[in-house]
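Task: sequence design from structure.
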């Protein structure tokens, strides 16, 4: 299913290593690694037009539940 031009405010997506998320046919968000000790995840965001990835560490959903 394509979400092109449908993402306006927010959207929930179960991101998995075999299930990347494509944002408006411009960016691909992929899960690379989950660090359960530090409650963080390593993701890769790739600009599909340039093909250059940008890796970012983000907290996992588990850290929200512990607050």
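Answer:
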């Amino acid at each position: 299913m394509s979400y092109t031009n449908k993402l306006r405010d927010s959207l929930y997506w179960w991101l998995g290593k075999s299930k990347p998320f494509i944002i408006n046919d411009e960016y691909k968000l992929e899960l690379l690694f989950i660090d359960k000790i530090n409650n963080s995840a390593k993701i890769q965001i790739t600009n599909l037009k340039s093909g250059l990835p940008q890796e970012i560490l983000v907290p996992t959903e588990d850290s929200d539940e512990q607050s």
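The helical segments are 61-65.
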